[in-house]
Amino acid sequence: MASGVAAQGSGGGDLVAHADDLGVIGSDAYKLYDGFQRDGDHARAATFEAARALSADNFTSGAALMKVHDTWQSQYTTLRDACAQISNHLDYSTTQHAKDDARVRGSLAAVSVISGYIN
After folding, report:
1. Does any domain span residue 9?
2. How far apart (Å, rounded) are the C-alpha atoms in residues 28 and 86?
3. Tens-digit pLDDT profile for the chain (119 aa)?
4. Superkingdom of the source (predicted)?
5. Cα-Cα-Cα-Cα dihedral of 5, 7, 11, 14, to 10°?
6. Three-state secondary-structure class, residue 27
């Protein structure tokens, strides 16, 4: 299953996703996002000002600190956005799967009624 597709006849090709499991993962992803949004950026302004002040006074550590600032900002944004994307996708998937299940149940109910007339 290296390609993400179950081998033919392996019996493992069906996707099973339980809303409870997805809900827990989505909730955890949202909590991480919320925590990053609230706490992950607290040192950005102070780090930037320190780097600027050190650079203005011709300390070479100013440029290094600015690089730390920029790298942290990039990594912080990437991780925060990934948590939001996971949370949003799982919310969407849970809702969409419920709609799909209801549609399939409705289709099968109609077939079941027709089968009753044939038998």
Report:
1. no
2. 10
3. 444 444 555 555 565 666 677 778 888 999 999 998 888 888 889 999 999 999 999 999 999 999 999 999 999 999 999 998 988 887 777 777 778 777 877 777 766 666 666 76
4. Bacteria
5. 10
6. helix
- Answer whether residue 68 is part of any domain: yes
The closest alpha carbon to 48, from 36, 39, 56, belongs to 56
Tokens of 84: 């939001």
Tokens of 103: 């549609």
Please count the structural domains in the chain: 1
Instruction: Please give the Cα distance from 87 to 94 (Å, whole number).
Output: 11
User: CA 77, CA 41: separation in Å to the nearest integer?
Assistant: 9
CA 3 – CA 22 distance, rounded (Å): 23
Residue 112 lies in a domain: no
Give the residue from 42, 44, 61, 62 showing the smallest Cα distance to 52: 62
Is residue 62 domain-resident?
Answer: yes
Task: Show the domain range for 59.
Answer: 22-105
